[in-house]
Amino acid sequence: MQNHTSKVMINSLVMIVAVAFLLNSANAVFAQGSSFVAYSAAGADATVIQPVVNAFRNTVGSPNNGNAPGPILSGRREINWDGGGSATSPAPTPFAGFQLNRGALFTTPGTGFVQAPPSGLATTFNNVTYGTLRSAPCGCSHPWAAM
User: Which residue ranges in the chain fall short of pLDDT 50?
Assistant: First the structure.
């Protein structure tokens, strides 16, 4: 019984230390005076929302480090979703295509992802109205969607 009591006391102590650490970390983050800033824009095309996109980019860091090897202490990495060419490109989940060069791993509860021109989305999702899109809502010609 004494051995069980010792384990409970040790586990309780570990839990208290962990909670204290997390609370202290959270206080340090919020004590810096950081505040939440939302960026939102709408427009007929990409040029209309570009100033808001640029403001967001400046906030998260410059320059765009692209595929430069890291770790890099400043800047940001962007993922260009228009790289799919004219093909419909399905990919499994998790999708690790950007993990090595951009640090992004994507998962979905579905079967995977697809990057395609609107005609490819119409075929993939069996919805002919997707084939009538001039471009995706993001303004890119090859939207990326979970399946």
Answer: 18-19
